[in-house]
Write a structure and sequence with these properties.
Layout lengths: L10 H18 L10 H14 L15 H13 L3 H25 L4 H14 L10 H21 L7 H17 L4 H17 L5 H28 L3 H17 L4 H14 L1 H13 L4 H18 L13 H19 L4 H25 L10 H12 L6 E3 L5 H5 L11 H4 L11 H10 L4 E5 L8 H14 E9 L2 E8 L8
Helix pairs in contact: 1-4, 1-5, 2-3, 3-4, 4-5, 4-6, 5-14, 5-15, 6-7, 6-8, 7-8, 7-9, 8-9, 8-13, 9-10, 12-14, 13-14, 14-15, 19-20
């Protein structure tokens, strides 16, 4: 059995924990250079910007996620300034916080402190894969779910005594905020509660009435942030929008999910990306199969798998939910393997395994980024387009991004022509999620004659035909091409509104 008494901390280990953000920053440093890595991150940035200017998420900028992510983005921008760098630094903070939580989780289980640090490094190294370099929701809610497991574990390892009420309260608050970032954390939240009370319930040290009271407190705290924001939107007269965006739209999204056969291929692909973690985790299952922390981490991986599959879309960043539990299993496996291979030099062996497995994903991510060499330090296409717009247009004027990166709105300091700033929700195939007539909205936008319209001509065919026809008519009738930018293999056209006076054309 694992020792349920946390090991004492030394100054050296406190210093190592303090150094973890620097290591995380080094692993994610190349992610600070491009303006866009992921479209979702750009949408949260726009929501945060409008929020800081008085426009609430969903009302000013629509999305099908709760407001937790834009709230954290807004906090980062308020403290660090309205910049891409501030958001990427938020990612460093979130990954570091998850690493700290993993360290203390393994420490609470009585493992050597080096094993906990190995779990933190394994998580940090693999967080750059699968869409984890931008600040996605899975990066943001991981610290809260992992911290909830840290709070629950001591109770699980001491089942002779009932859990304390304060643990229920803290866990409920942590999981409640994680649900405000993305509701798919619900299976992990349920597991955390099961870990908290399961052992005591089996040992009959937790009376059923107290269990029911704990469950009521926990459930109430888990839904409290969602309810509180609902009351705010109710006071603004926007409760229907809040419910449609955070409840109805995600269900509609999941109903249009891909076939399970396609999802299985993606599962296999992700397993190859995370191959070394899976192999080390398998080592833990073989060599430490009687250890309770292995069973807990395996159950955690199971609940995370349910979270991955709930949206039925299987995009790469969804699989980041696996990383905390896999990092625990892999660290345990690396520790057991080190003792098995070199009992007298187990810590050295653990260090080498951890370093190699943690740096391998960084190598895989960095190599294609460095391939372009000097282009790394130049402005990418969205930033160049935004710079061109800003040189001709006063801040705060309206532009329209028809089917290109919405981050251009932010970089050009331009006003939004619509609350549907994410092109896929307006001109693309996900317009059914918005709960409004998007064709009428496109007509309204074009009638306002935005100063600039940005069109990705290479991917023009991916737009809805009705949207493409309306934009084509507007461009031919009142706009002229100002510049054509190259974005990889894409041709991105910047159209400028034509002066109504022919003499000034």
């Amino acid at each position: 059995m694992l020792n349920a008494t946390p090991l004492p901390m030394t100054r050296a280990w406190w210093a190592a924990l303090a150094a973890l953000p620097a290591i995380v920053f080094a692993l994610r440093a190349l992610g600070f250079l491009p303006s866009v890595i992921d479209w979702d991150e750009s949408l949260y940035i726009l929501q945060a910007r409008e929020w800081l200017r008085g426009g609430w998420p969903l009302v000013a900028v629509w999305d099908m996620h709760p407001v937790g992510a834009p709230a954290m983005f807004a906090a980062a921008m308020l403290l660090l300034g309205e910049s891409i760098g501030a958001i990427r630094l938020l990612g460093v903070i979130a990954v570091s916080a998850t690493g700290w939580a993993l360290f203390f989780l393994l420490r609470a289980g009585g493992l050597p402190l080096a094993v906990g640090y190995a779990a933190a490094l394994l998580y940090a190294g693999h967080s750059v894969l699968l869409g984890g370099m931008p600040v996605n929701t899975e990066i943001l809610f991981a610290p809260f779910i992992t911290a909830a497991m840290v709070v629950a574990l001591p109770a699980a390892l001491n089942p002779e005594r009932p859990p304390e009420t304060w643990r229920v309260v803290i866990m409920g608050l942590l999981v409640g905020w994680a649900m405000m970032i993305k509701p798919v954390v619900m299976p992990d939240g349920c597991l955390a509660f099961a870990v908290l009370v399961g052992g005591a319930l089996l040992r009959r040290s937790l009376p059923v009435p107290r269990l029911l009271r704990f469950a009521a407190i926990y459930a109430a705290l888990c839904v409290a942030p969602t309810v509180c924001f609902g009351l705010i939107y109710l006071a603004m007269g926007e409760l229907d929008l809040y419910l449609d965006s955070t409840i109805l739209a995600p269900f509609t999204y999941a109903q249009a999910g891909i076939a399970l056969s396609r999802g299985a291929w993606r599962l296999a692909s992700v397993a190859i990306y995370l191959l070394w973690l899976f192999l080390l985790a398998a080592g833990a299952l073989v060599l430490l199969k009687r250890q309770p922390l292995v069973a807990i981490a395996l159950a955690w991986f199971g609940s995370a798998t349910l979270a991955v599959t709930l949206p039925a879309q299987f995009f790469p960043h969804y699989f980041l939910v696996w990383l905390p539990s896999l990092s625990v299993l892999a660290a345990l496996g690396a520790h057991a393997l080190s003792k098995f291979l070199a009992a007298r030099r187990a810590m050295l062996c653990l260090t080498l395994i951890t370093a190699a497995v943690s740096l391998d994903p960084w190598r895989n991510d960095s190599a294609p980024r460095i391939w372009s060499g000097h282009y790394l330090l130049e402005l990418d296409a969205p930033a160049r387009i935004a710079q061109h717009i800003a040189e001709e247009m006063p801040p705060g004027e309206t532009i329209f991004i028809a089917n290109y990166q919405p981050i251009v709105y932010f970089l050009a300091n331009a006003a939004l022509p619509t609350r549907f700033a994410f092109p896929a929700h307006l001109t693309g195939v996900w317009n059914n999620l918005a709960g409004s007539d998007t064709d009428a909205e496109i007509t309204r936008i074009l009638e306002t004659r935005p100063r600039f319209i940005v069109v990705d001509r290479t991917h023009w065919g991916a737009m809805r035909p009705a949207a493409a026809r309306a934009i084509t008519t507007a461009l031919e009738g009142g706009y002229q091409i100002n510049y054509v930018f190259q974005d990889g293999r894409s041709n991105v056209e910047l159209w400028r509104v034509r002066d109504p006076d022919p003499e000034n054309d």
